[in-house]
Here is the input.
Amino acid sequence: MSGILVVQEAGRKRISFEALAFGRRLAELTGLAVETAAVGDPNETIFVETSGPPIPTSHAVRHSLLEKYTSDGYVLAFEQLIRKLEPSYVVFPHTYQSRDYVPRLATRFGQVLISDITGIEAGPIFIRQLVQGKLTGAYRHQGDGPCFLSIQAGAFPADPPQAGKTIILTFQPEIAPSDIRTRPSEPFRGGSQTVDLGSAQLIVSVGRGIKDAANIPIVQELATALGAELAASRPICDNGWLPMERQVGSSGQTVSPKLYLAIGISGAIQHLVGMKGSQCVVAINKDPDAPIFEVADYGIAGDLFEVVPALTAAVKAAKQ
Amino acid sequence: MKIIVAIKQVPGPDAQVRIDATGKWIEESDLQFALNESDAYALEEALQLKEKHGGEVIVVSAGPERVGTTIREALAKGADRAIQIACDDLGTRDALGVSRLLAAAIKTENPDLILTGLQSEDLGLGQTGVIVAELLGLPHATLILHVEVLDGAGTQAQIKVKRELEEGWFQTIELPTPAVLTIQSGGNKLRYATLMGIKRAKTKEVRQLTAAELGVDSAPVVLLEQVSMPQRKKSTQMLPGNAQEAATALVEKLKFEVRVL
Here is the structure.
């Protein structure tokens, strides 16, 4: 094949189609052809629904031992598919599932996954964030063997579907029950999710800059004055300063309010993927180079312990 | 239960990063370093498992000499001993190259469990634990919040772990040991080192190894060619002035442009 194999994830359609959009960009740069693959039945939506011009060939990876995701099963299945097709590039959506098994799969080929890609340039050079978004890194793959890539959510917009035909080939890997060493349960919801941040119109969100649990009331007062929901980045919830259900980001909720006011949040990519759908982003941070300012419409580079109380007072005054 | 925790020293969360003269990494000379956060949670989980079930906790870390301070911190929190892999070329090794160092050092210890954080705060590749599992031929599970040791005889699984999935979902996974687990932050409350712990750490064993002794070469397949400051995608309007002035200006914007007041 010596082309580009884009692996799609059933149940994660949007980010899968974004990975496909990346695959097409890579195809333009390299002149290689794109094929897709996914675990599942050819009738499943990930094969039936398409994005962009139809891909000529898609591979449906089928085996009874793949019905439940396990890293052992997926590594074996895709190892065999890749050895058969011999692609130059293998592209994955960057999800909790792909990050669980693809590093292991790449190791089997003596390769290293370039994970969490947000851009591509001629070369091809692959762009990803470093040091919590404070830096951008340019990576290159060298040597023989397939190059493994995973694509961050929201970096490459999915193409609208176009009519056409895809040939779906079934691939049956060889897997024995004894190959699967882990026994996963069905997914379950953690606790009672009482806070629906997804439908909130105004969100005040707090990060590590707040320094201490005792300082949370400062932002709570601003949220109350605005009539906003209070949210947080992961470290705040990890510390137990706010409950987990108020977390925004890849491991928390995805929000798209009219106003997202980020206070003392540096803007690591795991947080940004949860809030970049916001209509207006305001950032308050003492570090003028904090990556949160890259996605902000309005920014205040200053000490939140001075700015937030002043803002609360100004909001109250404006509402009277 | 013998547990190895692989830890990494990374720039601290408040570090002001600057690009170095090579343009390939950051200027390290005046940087504050800290224990990688999810590695701190991995260490905490290991210490709690030891407190419940007995055994030994060994930390392993690769890097230049400065890594020693982070190793002492882990020992002060309660790890029993450490392995320090001296290597000054961490930056030019890819994830596989670093994992080969760790795997070679871990292999001789024959641990029951290997824990590490889910990803580093500097490179953020999120792969080392999984690659180490493959190199050692062990099963793995990622994004783990808690580890439970099963005592049921006649079952193949020896541990049951709670794994975080996306958007508030979880699952449990049962797996045999030895196994590699990458630990998500937030599963436990982190402990601080006590004065007694800091004192004791000074006498604990830190075994020094080199990459050459481990017989691991470093030819990378993936190269970080250049680092740069991120480019702003949106045109951010910065509101100047003191806190009072900036707050007043922002309220004007919220009222008349964003129209949320």
Observations:
- Chain B touches chain A through 82 residues (CB under 8 Å).
